[in-house]
Amino acid sequence: MVKVTNLTKTYGDFTAVDNISFEIRKGEIFGFLGPNGAGKTSTINMMIGLSRSTTGEITVGGIDVKKQIKRARAIMGIVPDESNLYNEMDGFENLCFCAALYGMRKNEREAKARLLLERFGLKGAGKRPFKAYSKGMRRKLTIAAALIHSPQVLFLDEPTTGIDVESSRQIREMIVGLKQQGVTIFLTTHYIEEAERLCDRVAFIADGQIVASGTVPELMGSVAHEHTIRFVTDRNAADLATELVAELQAGFAGSKVEVRPDQSLVMVSERRIPLLPVMEFFHDRGINVYEARELRPSLEDVFVELTGIDSSVLKKDKEKGGRR
Amino acid sequence: MKSWIAFWNILKKDVKNYYLKPPNISWGIIFPLSWTLMQLIRSPGGSILTLLPGLISMSVLFGTTSMLAVTITFERSGRSFERLLLAPISLSIMVLAKIAGTVLFGIFNAFVPVIFAAFFIDLRAVSWGVVIPAVLLIAVTSALLGLLIAVSAEQVFEAQTFSNFFRFPMLFLCGLFIPLADLPIFLRPISYCLPLTYGTDLLNGAITGANVLSPFLSFGLLLLFAAALFLISRHNINRKWIM
User: Fold this and answer.
1) pLDDT in tens, B98-141
2) Could you read off the pLDDT of A33-79 as tens digits, one per residue?
C-alpha cells in the first residue's frame, strides 16, 4: 500500500533522513519508532508531500507522491503531531470544513461530521469552539478530521503524546478499530510500549537511518538474550535459603538462580530452561509453585540494544511531549 | 467541481472567521471614513470628487495588504494553514481562495468613501464601468502583495511591519499626492513599477477625467501585474512552505 525507496532528505550539510526504504502492507499498522530528531517527522512530511525528498521514491496506493500529490492526498488521512484545526470554529464546523477541502457535498459532509463526533464521544462538544477543547478532545477531533473522507491510508504522528490516559486509551482502541476496517496506518511514536501493543510491524529509526524493522517477535528474536524464568512459590525469601539456591544451580548446570525481594525465585540460563525437571525439583522438596513465567526482553530492551540509544532519552522525549 | 467546493469553503471560512469580525468591520468603515474626513478638513475648499480617487486607492491598499498578510501568518503560526497545504487541491486554487476574501474586503473598503461622498456630491458623471474593474484590480494586486509579505513573515507583527514598508512608499510614489510629472526624475521609474500607479490613474480618469495614461494601457499593465504577482506568490509558497 505504501512503498518508500531509498528516501533521503538533507538540509545543507545535515542529513535528516539517510537512504531509508520500507513497505507497508494494506490494512497493517506500521510503527516508526525513534527519539526526537531521529528523522520521523521529516520522513512523514515527505510521505504526505509537505516536504520534498532530496532523493528517493514514495508511492501510496500505487500513486507516485512526487508526481501526483493531489491524487495521493485524496486517499491519505493526516494527523499531525499538533492539532491544526481552527480555534475560531466549533467541532462540527471544523469537520465540515475539512470535508469540503476533499470536495464533499454539504449533505454528505454534515452527515459524516455528525457520525464522527458521535464515534469519538464528542457529540456534546460539537457546537463548542475548538479553542475550548481539552488536549485529549483536540487530538480526537484532529483524528476525526483526518478520517472525514474515509482515507485508505492514515498517517498518525505521535497520536497519544501529551494527552490524558483515558483519551490515549480511546485513541488506541480507535486505531485498532480502523485497522479492522482495513485502513493502513503509519504511526510514528516514541512510546515503545504503544508500538509493541498496536503495531503489526515496527521500524526503528535513529540518526536518519532505519536500524531494524520487522514484526515485534522478529525484532525480539533478532537480539541474543538470556532465558529467564520467574517462579512464585509458597515460600518466603528466608525459606528459599541459599542451600536451595545452590542445589538448584548444581542440578541445572549453566543456570544462575537468585531470590528477588518480591519473594520470587529467578532462574537465568543461556539455554532454554525445560520446565518439568525444575517443577519436579520443587515438588520433591514439598514446595508448591503457583506461577512459572518466562521473562522476555521488552521491545524497549531490543530498541536500546539495536540503536545504542539509552531508554532514558526516550523517557525524556515523553516528558517533553507531555509538557507540550 | 471538487476544487470549487474547496475554493468556496475556504473563502466562506475566511470571510466568517476574519473579515466579518467586529474589529475588521469597524476597521473597514472607520479607516476610510477617517481618511475622507482628514482630507476634507485639511483642504476645506477642495473638491470631494478630486479627493475620491486617492481615498478609494488608499482604502483598498490598506484594507487588503495587511489583512491577507496577517491572516495567513496567523494561520501559519497556529498550523491551520498546513491543513490547506495538505488538501487535495492545487496551490493555485488555494491561493485564489485566500486572496478572494481579501479582495472582497478591499472592495467593501473602497466603497465606504464612495457612499460617504454620495451624500455630498452628484456621482452620476463618474464612469463606473472603469471604477469597478479598476478597484477590483487594485484589490487583487494589493492582496497579492500582501501574500508576498506573508511568505516572508514568520510572525503577525513582522507581517504588519513589512506591509508598512511597502505601503507608505507606494502611496507617495503612485501619483496620489504628487503628480508623476512633478516627481524627481530618478523616482519616476520606481513609480512606473508600482501597480497602484496605474490603478490610481484609472480612478483619476474615471472620476475626474484627469488620467495621464491610456486606460487600456493601465488595465493591461494591472492585469500583467496581477498575473506576475500570482505566479511569484505561488512559486514562493511552493519553494518556502513545501521544503
Assistant:
1) 999 999 999 988 888 888 888 878 888 888 999 999 999 999 99
2) 888 888 888 999 999 988 889 999 999 999 998 888 889 999 999 99
Kindly tell me the burial class for residue A284, based on how many C-beta atoms sit within 10 Å of its own C-beta (0-12, 13-18, 19 or more): exposed
- CA nearest to B85 within chain A: A50
The domain total for chain A is 2
Residue among A52, A73, A105 minimizing CB distance to B88 = A73
Decide if A305 is inside a domain: no
Q: What's the pLDDT tens digit per position in A281-312?
A: 888 888 888 998 888 777 777 777 777 776 66
Per DSSP, the three-state class of A12 is coil
CB contact under 8 A, B79 and A73: no
Q: Is B13 on the interface with A (CB under 8 A)?
A: yes
Any domain includes A21: yes
Work out the pLDDT band at A323, boundaries 50, 70, 90. Answer: very low
Q: Let me know if residue A122 belongs to a domain.
A: yes
Instruction: Looking at the structure, tell me whether residues A195 and A286 fall in a common domain.
Output: no
Interface confidence (ipTM) of the complex: 0.83
Contact A48/B at CB under 8 A: yes
Residues forming beta bridges with residue A4, ordered by sequence position: A22, A58
Cα dihedral sign for A190, A192, A194, A198? positive
Task: Give the domain CATH number at A272.
Answer: 3.30.70.100
Residue A31 sits in the same domain as residue A92:
yes
Q: What's the CA dihedral at A195, A196, A201, A203 to 10 degrees?
A: 60
Residue B178 cell numbers, joined: 504628487
pLDDT digits (tens, 9 = 90+) for B38-84: 777 776 656 778 888 888 888 888 888 878 888 888 888 878 888 88
Write down the residue that cell numbers 474589529 correspond to.
B23
Q: Which residues pair with A266 in a beta bridge?
A: A230, A258
Give the CA distances from residue B12 to residues A77, A221, B29, B84, in Å, rounded to whole numbers and listed in that order. 23, 56, 21, 14
CA B31, B37, B43, B45: dihedral to nearest 10 degrees? 140
Position A268 in a domain: yes
Residues of chain B with C-beta less than 8 angstroms from the C-beta of A102: 2, 6, 87-88
Question: Which of B2, B17, B90 lies nearest to residue A86, judging by beta carbons?
Answer: B17
| Same domain? A64 vs A186 | yes
A-B contacts (CB, under 8 Å): 68
User: Looking at the partner chain, which of B5, B78, B90 has a beta carbon nearest the beta carbon of A87?
Assistant: B78
Range of the domain at A261: 227-295
